[in-house]
Amino acid sequence: MAGTLLLLALAGSAAAATVAAAPPAPPTPAPAPGAVARAAPRVTPATTGSLAGQVVGVDLAAGLVTIRETVGAPRPGREAVPVTLRVDAASKVVKGRRPASLADVHAGDHAVARYQVTATGRRALTLRVADTLVPPAVATPTPPPTIPAGPQ
Fold first, then answer.
1. I need a labelling partner for 148 at 20 to 30 A (CA). Which of 6, 18, 95, 139 fits?
2. What pTM did the predictor assign?
3. What are residue 94's DSSP bridge partners?
4. Each residue of 39-81: pLDDT tens digit?
């Protein structure tokens, strides 16, 4: 028991010596008179989001795709507004199950996009476009052959 107390006393004095040896923190500057105190902006990693909807426009020259969110119920006070995403070389574009490019995306296609909000706008991380289904050719029914009425 005495050994434990001695050990605790030594540990406490070592901790006090460490605290005493630490340099003092620099003083924080006082705000100017009449200034409103504001919290420092939080530094956070880039925000990501996702949306699903119909492609309403593609600008190949600028590398932009605009999607109007149509999947899911709009939140109260929020309409389904078009969202424009920048598609660059790092963006993964898939149409159906095949890798694709922005040139394969057309207005009217249904798409799901995951994007990153940057200082310059929204950058597409992934853009998945539904394969366009070509309806099967509908066969026109052929009328039954007519038998000419002859003498009876």
1. 139
2. 0.56
3. 99, 128
4. 544 445 568 899 999 999 999 999 999 999 887 656 666 677 8
Long-range contacts, stretch 89-94, CB < 8 angstroms, 24+ apart:
90/125, 91/123, 91/124, 91/125, 91/126, 91/127, 92/125, 92/126, 92/127, 93/124, 93/126, 93/127, 93/129, 94/126, 94/127, 94/128, 94/129
pLDDT digits over 7-39, tens only?
Answer: 344 444 444 444 445 556 556 566 566 656 555
Question: 17: left (phi > 0), else alpha (psi -120 to 50), else beta?
Answer: alpha
What is each CA distance from 2 to 5, 6, 7, in whole angstroms? Answer: 5, 6, 9
Question: End-to-end distance of the chain based on CA atoms, in angstroms?
Answer: 131
Query: What is the spatial distance between Cα 122 and Cα 46, in angstroms, rounded to a whole number?
Result: 10
Which CATH number is 47-129 given?
Answer: 2.40.50.320
